């Protein structure tokens, strides 16, 4: 079974929470469940915590690559571009928790004094947790505890308590606001606009000039931003996004390969099949067959 990250037209993830009235996503996943052992670049308002149970994976946060090994974790601040992947197709089992920061805003004073300073700290896109630091261990224990109690009758109350404790540790150890890189933050906003444009119009013919114009930059800077933060060209990102979109149709409809190719923006089934095999090391027909076999 494959995992798909549901994205809005602007690249913001549509998070499917565990509880109707409590914005939290708590799951244990395998990296192999994602197409090509990689999640698509995305961002969301939620705070994200990852704890690796076994194996390892690379994690890209705003273009910086962190290697997460077994029994290590990471905190990703709100609205950062991020995704996990393995170029070597290595397996990784990990707990993924998303919690909306509004859960901490019990009153305006707490929001102003303790929540916003972390969310707005532009020197804090992420924190890499290791076992060599005591407060890091406490947060990783909190991640595991939240996952282990997610199904108990009083889980929401307990999760709220643990999240608050973890947030206090992050607040106490966050870097000070200094030397804010305004250029980098502006570049991330431009990149988000261009990613959003691709995700909105992927099923149509898109040129590099159109992608660049959606970010208000020239083609050269457009390519530079994709290379700097996503380690790929705009066209490579477009093709991979189309291919990932096609997987849903392959696995959940009886459309022909040709129909799927045109629906996701390819100009023919031959090019689609060639790109699919190059990206997934398997043909669309074989992928569909293997998925049906799993079901």
What is the molecular shape? Answer: globular
Low-confidence stretches: none
Q: Summarize model confidence as the mean pLDDT.
A: 91
Integer-rounded radius of gyration: 20 Å
Distance between the termini: 8 Å
Largest sheet: 5 strands, antiparallel
Major sheet strand order: 1-7-2-5-8
Order of helices and strands: EEEEEEEHEHHHHHHHHH
Total of helices: 10
Q: Roughly what percent helix?
A: 40-55%
Beta-strand content bin: 15-25%
Tell me the structural class.
Answer: alpha+beta
How many E-type strands? Answer: 8
List the helices and strands and how they pair.
Elements: E1 24-30, E2 47-55, E3 57-61, E4 64-68, E5 73-76, E6 82-85, E7 92-99, H1 108-119, E8 126-129, H2 134-148, H3 155-173, H4 182-201, H5 208-214, H6 219-230, H7 234-252, H8 257-263, H9 269-280, H10 284-294
Antiparallel strand pairs: 1-7, 2-5, 2-7, 3-4, 3-6, 5-8
Helix pairs in contact: 1-3, 2-3, 4-5, 4-6, 5-6, 8-9
List keywords for this structure.
single chain; 295 residues; alpha+beta; five-stranded antiparallel sheet; three-stranded antiparallel sheet; 10 helices; 8 strands
Structure, explained:
With 295 residues, the protein is α+β, with helices and mostly antiparallel strands. It is built from ten helices and eight strands. The chain has helices at residues 108-119, 134-148, 155-173, 182-201, 208-214, 219-230, 234-252, 257-263, 269-280, 284-294; strands at residues 24-30, 47-55, 57-61, 64-68, 73-76, 82-85, 92-99, 126-129. Strands 1-7-2-5-8 form a five-stranded antiparallel beta sheet, with helices on one face. Strands 4-3-6 form a three-stranded antiparallel beta sheet, with no helix packed on it. The longest helix has 20 residues, at 182-201. The radius of gyration is 20 Å and the shape is globular. It starts with 23 loop residues before the first strand and ends with a helix. The model has no long low-confidence stretch (mean pLDDT 91).
